[in-house]
Design goal:
By secondary structure, this protein is mostly helical. It contains 5 helices and no strands. Helix 1 (10-36) crosses helix 3.
């Protein structure tokens, strides 16, 4: 945990993290079931800027080693976005410096 984001009181820290995990799971359920569902992209069958913005937010979770296995539609959608021809080149710095920089970090999971 980053020190600037920790409460001095361990009970407050634990409760804050538990509540945050609960909220994250709830919103991931909404994204998985209602926004993505069985659609190819967020807004239907066509790729839009919403897909690019949304996948950027979710892949930030890779820094903290988050797995979205409990949300199969999210997993499918993220994988399809990462399979796009430009993904690797555009995100090269992100994976090298951010994901790679925290590869040995210890984080809480969802």
């Amino acid at each position: 945990t980053l020190p600037d984001y920790m409460y001095a009181d361990a009970a407050v820290q634990s409760a804050t993290l538990a509540r945050s995990q609960q909220k994250a799971r709830r919103w991931l359920d909404v994204l998985d079931r209602h926004l993505i569902g069985n659609k190819k992209f967020l807004c239907g069958q066509d790729l839009t800027i919403a897909d690019y913005l949304g996948v950027c937010y979710l892949t930030l979770g890779e820094v903290a080693h988050l797995k979205f296995d409990a949300w199969p539609n999210i997993t499918r959608w993220v994988n399809s976005m990462k399979a796009r021809p430009t993904w690797g080149k555009v995100n090269e710095g992100f994976y090298q410096y951010f994901v790679g920089g925290y590869k040995d970090g210890k984080f809480m999971s969802l």
